[in-house]
């Protein structure tokens, strides 16, 4: 019996309308100052419960008042442009009405978490990388959201159908990672030829499968 549905956030439930890449700009500023910043820098930014300014300070990036204001404006521009996909709102409403427990599991930096929660409030679980100190496909994130939802990963014996399903736009993090943790993962491809092209299609598949069990 399918009990819970987990969604990725960016690219799945929400999109950025005006991408300004504030953390990338912060890293550029650090490199201009001679710091040897690597891909591990972004990993740190996504696994720490701190503001952009605090992350810069931790990395040794000196921000003048004018540069801090500039980065803050760039960040606010991006945050204010985040919007839910229409099909995401419809699919979650449909699945919640059908009685499924719903959660979000996502890799993101601290400022983005409250925006996601405000767009999709009162769900059964939220697992964000900046809160847990690790990123998908680390199984800690999948287990955390399942614990909050009150569901246990693991496949049912009938037809290999999972008790918990997850969908997102990353094959590695939203399909393969969950499957390794006992969650049936699905890949969302918002393209005409994608196997699952939108979340309304996914919700219909879930409802059909749940009626067949």
List keywords for this structure.
alpha/beta, 213 residues, HAD_sf, 47% helix, hydrolase, Haloacid dehalogenase, hydrolase activity, two-stranded antiparallel sheet, five-stranded parallel beta sheet, S-2-haloacid_dehalogenase, elongated, Rossmann fold, 7 strands
Can you lay out the helices and strands and say which pair or pack?
Layout: E1 4-7, E2 14-16, H1 22-32, H2 39-46, H3 52-58, H4 65-80, E3 82-84, H5 86-97, E4 101-106, H6 113-119, E5 125-128, H7 129-132, H8 139-149, E6 164-168, H9 171-180, E7 184-187, H10 199-212
Parallel strand pairs: 1-4, 1-6, 4-5, 6-7
Antiparallel strand pairs: 2-3
Task: Count the E strands.
Answer: 7
Largest sheet: 5 strands, parallel
Mean pLDDT: 93
Order of helices and strands: EEHHHHEHEHEHHEHEH
Question: Would you mind describing this structure in some detail?
Answer:
The chain is built from ten helices and seven strands. The relative contact order is 0.19. It has two domains: 4-15 and 83-212, Rossmann fold (3-Layer(aba) Sandwich), CATH 3.40.50.1000; 22-81, no CATH class. A five-stranded parallel beta sheet has the order 5-4-1-6-7, with helices on both faces. A two-stranded antiparallel ribbon has the order 2-3. The radius of gyration is 18 Å and the shape is elongated. 47% of the residues lie in helices and 14% in strands.
